[in-house]
Amino acid sequence: MSAQPVAQAAEARGTFGGDMDKGSGPVTLRMIADEVGVNVSTVSRVINSSDKEARRWASSDMIDRIRTVVAARGYQRNPHAASLRTRRSGLVGVLVPRLQDFVLATVYEGIEEAATEQGISTFVTNSLDRPENQASRTELMLSRRVDGLIFGDAHTGDPFLDTLAKRGIKFTLVSRRSGDHISATCDDIMGGRLVAEHLLATGRRDIGILSGRDYASTGNDRTAGVVQACLEAGIRIRPERIVHGGFDAPGGRQATERLLVQGGCPDAIFATNDFAAIGAMGVLRDRGITVPDDVAIVGYNDTPLAAELSIPLTTIHSPMHEMGRAGLNLLLAMLRGEPVESVRLAPELIVRASTAS
Amino acid sequence: MSAQPVAQAAEARGTFGGDMDKGSGPVTLRMIADEVGVNVSTVSRVINSSDKEARRWASSDMIDRIRTVVAARGYQRNPHAASLRTRRSGLVGVLVPRLQDFVLATVYEGIEEAATEQGISTFVTNSLDRPENQASRTELMLSRRVDGLIFGDAHTGDPFLDTLAKRGIKFTLVSRRSGDHISATCDDIMGGRLVAEHLLATGRRDIGILSGRDYASTGNDRTAGVVQACLEAGIRIRPERIVHGGFDAPGGRQATERLLVQGGCPDAIFATNDFAAIGAMGVLRDRGITVPDDVAIVGYNDTPLAAELSIPLTTIHSPMHEMGRAGLNLLLAMLRGEPVESVRLAPELIVRASTAS
DNA sequence: CTGAAAGCGCTTACAG
DNA sequence: CTGAAAGCGCTTACAG
């Protein structure tokens, strides 16, 4: 708090009942111990025990007295001292492609919320999906002595995460999955199937897919789900109907333009992200193609804007917040040494005007 | 890294050249010192000095040898130990209304970027603009021993920040200003003036304003700028032309509906936020009011979506990223004890189809 | 049930 | 120029 050096005046503290703070900084365990008239170790034990456990360490009278003084003085443990001693920091590092992305911001909110509930603090940073950033930011997090990491930017087939796992570093993935690493994701294959089934049921037969980045399991799984479901219905989606690109509006715009050029206009477009769907709608509008009469459009994620669009967007609701919470809780379980398994959350189809013919 | 207790095997370390790690956890200063054959204090001094300063503390031969071993072993200082000793954590807490909000996510990106450059780490959390959260999250940040705080959720007239300042807590504001507290903001009054000047120059005379939350200086200043500039042009904006509401699309929708009800349709609407502008456009479209022929629309912030809309949006570009950087750097200067002054960044008008008649 | 001691990994006066 | 010591605020065997 104060800029002045606090000096080594630890012994000069009053016996007990001294009510003034003397500007000597935050309350320490020693101050509490002195005021109660007991050893710091006793205070430490009481503070770090539940009501029941505490009984094993101290008389109930002692427990009451300590708790009273702790509350009265507003004691807060110094986390740096505790971390130094216990070798656990209660810190988690989170890497996301970009926090500006509504989807990842929401996932992170879930992570942060669950972390706070568990007394954990998080650092977040953007990797912009660039491998060199992923590596350097991970090392930076590690140098901050995080207990574990959560990646929202996993790249399919990239050995980076394998290397990390081999080093014994604990981490989970959110939003995107990769290999056998523990992850909390939406069941994107199922999501894709829901889209295909809806489109087929409403009479569409030629589906174009804005698949997103080729290194992201999200877009790939959603695409695979559509392809599977169509195949089961006897419809084969040609390769040129699947185009990759960015997950934002400009990315969707470009991908849509490529889609139209290379195969003519389909009767449905599935954008694996709502923002890409907005870009797609822009292109169609520019070309005088009407939605949903000429082309149905489906997005993914059920972003708030989806319902606000001039033509409200049919989309898949994915539990982004819950995904973040699960990713954090999985990591914590791993750190406790418990066996953990990946979580696939259920997607849900939300039908709106963009597919209602 | 490893879950097993690392044990007190500090003395059992090889003399020098021992290349294996023995799983004894991260490299410590002591290991470096032992390998170089020098006292830890010497290593500490060299590590924490610039090239020039180091000369005062050690022979250039010593400096080289230490630097070599530090690099070879990949030594990283334990920040908890250093914080405990120095009483400075290198940690900054950031409170924003909500990270899902593109504007605040971007401001935070700027904060985080500048922090990383300066070797500082940040914690972010959402307050949802609720006073009880602002208080509790601030205390939580303080219990994490942050050196200072950055608030993106300041409420005009709220004594909370005054109380904090009185407690000697160091903080800066971003995005919104409040009282005399140090802040890094866009010059929102100027931004409002730019909007009014453009609207007046293109023949508009009856401007409705979606002013946002009444506790946020952003919306209020932007509104004030419009009112001022209009007054100077001899046009008085009636109070019922100014409506408050949320800064998102639904908020803009509701505010617009109230605006239309209570005073008929204006010939221009200034939404103090791009997302609110999107909501406004939705309402107008539903009612068959055309943009820009019947009503011109202007947003604020120059969000990427603004250019992607069916009717591209005239808006004010505000340097959100730079605002975050400035907020962090101001805080750091304060912590160094330097005199600091608030920063007002220049807004810029971006004219698009929504006002081009 | 409670205390005393050691030690986590650093930094920084204080000596020399 | 370098070393030795103290101490930041905790936790945790180890005694009793």
Automatic annotation (TrEMBL), chains A, B:
Residue span, HTH lacI-type domain: 27-86
Region (Disordered): 1-21
CDD domains per record: HTH_LacI, PBP1_LacI-like
Gene3D superfamilies: 3.40.50.2300, lambda repressor-like DNA-binding domains (1.10.260.40)
Pfam entry (one): Peripla_BP_3
Keywords annotated in UniProt: DNA-binding, Transcription, Transcription regulation
Cross-referenced SMART domains: HTH_LACI
Family annotation (SUPFAM superfamilies): lambda repressor-like DNA-binding domains, Periplasmic binding protein-like I
PROSITE patterns linked to this entry: HTH_LACI_2
Protein known as: LacI family transcriptional regulator
Species whose genome carries this gene: Paeniglutamicibacter sulfureus
